[in-house]
Amino acid sequence: MRSEKEMYDLILDTAKEDRRIRAVYMNGSRTNKNAPRDLFQDYDIVYVVDETREFYEDPAWIDRFGERLYMQMPELMDQMQGMETNLDENFGWLMQFSDGNRIDLHVQSIPYAREHITEDRLCRILLDKDGILPEMPESTDEEHWVKRPGEIDFLCVCNEFWWCLNSVAKGLWREEVTYVMDMLNLHVRPQLFTLLSWKAGRLTDYKKSMGKSGKYMKNFIPEETWERFLRTYADADIGHLWTAVEGMCELFDETAREEAAALGMSYNESEAQGSRKFLARVKELPQDAEEIF
Question: In whole angstroms, what is the distance from residue 198 CA to residue 203 CA?
Fold first, then answer.
C-alpha cells in the first residue's frame, strides 16, 4: 500500500506538471484533526482547472493514479438518470485502487471552485499557482458540532418518536418485517439518534461532532448508554424486533426525561405513556382479534 507521502507526492506532482490544473484543495476526514487516522481514510481531492471538459472527455489521464479495482463517476451517473447537472463546472471520479488506497477526485472550474470552496470548513488548500482561491481559515469540524436544541425542536423529536411507533406496532402484529424495518430505521431511530446526540452535545459543551451516521458518538456518551443503543438493532425475527422496540422506548424515555431536566425543557410524559400503552396492547393482541381495545 502506497504511503501517505507517496500519495500526496503523486497528487501534487500531477497538479504541478499539468498546466491546466491551477490549484488543488482537499477536504474530508484527512483535514479534520479530530478524526481518527487509519488506513481506510480517503484522499478527497479537488483540482481547480481552466476547463473540466478536457479532463472528462479524455479520462485516460486518471490512469496515472494507479491500478483501479473499480470506480464511480457520480455526476455522470446523475446526468444519465436525467438529473440536472453541469459537467463543465464539476466532475468526479471516485477510485478504489488495488493497493488499498482510495481517491475521491473532482475537477472544478475556477468560478465554481471559488463560489463553493468556503461552504466546507473542513478544507485545506494544497496548491494555488495563481492565487485564485480565497484565503481559507484553519480547517475545523465546528460546523458539524452538535447544536443545543430549542424546546420546539425537543418536543417535535419526542412527538415524532412516539407517534411513528404506532406504525411499527401494527407492522409487527401483521408480521410485515420489511415495513417494520423501514419504519424503525427511517423514522423512529433517527429521533433516538438525535436525542442521544443532544445528550452527547451537552456532555461535551456542544463542541464535538458525532461524525457521519454517529460513528463517533460512542466516545461521548456513557458506555452503558451506547451498549443499550446498539441492542436496539435487531434481526428479522418478530420476537427480537419487539425486544428491540421496547428497548428503544425505555432508552428514549429515560434520556428524554434526563435531557428535559438538564436543559429546563418540558417533556410530554402523557404522550410517551399513551404510545407505550398502545404498543403493549398490540403486542398481546391475538391474530384473530376484531378490535384493539
Answer: 9
- Calpha distance 268→253 (Å, rounded): 10
Say which CATH superfamily domain 4-143 falls into.
Beta Polymerase, domain 2 (3.30.460.10)
Residue extents of the structural domains in the chain: 4-143, 145-284
User: What are φ and ψ of residue 208, in 5° steps?
Assistant: -135, 150
Between these two residues, 121 and 48, which has the higher pLDDT value? 48
SS3 assignment, position 103: strand
Closest CA to 138 of 10, 45, 38, 34: 34
- CA-CA-CA-CA dihedral for 52, 58, 64, 70, to nearest 10: 100
The CA-based angle 11-15-21, given to 5 degrees, is: 135
193 vs 38, residue with greater confidence: 193
Starting at the edge strand found earlier in the chain, the sheet holding 21-27 runs 68-72, 90-97, 102-109, 43-49, 21-27, 123-128
∠ CA 112-114-116, nearest 5°, is 65
What's the pTM value of the predicted model, to 2 decimals?
A: 0.83
The architecture that CATH gives domain 145-284 is Up-down Bundle (1.20)
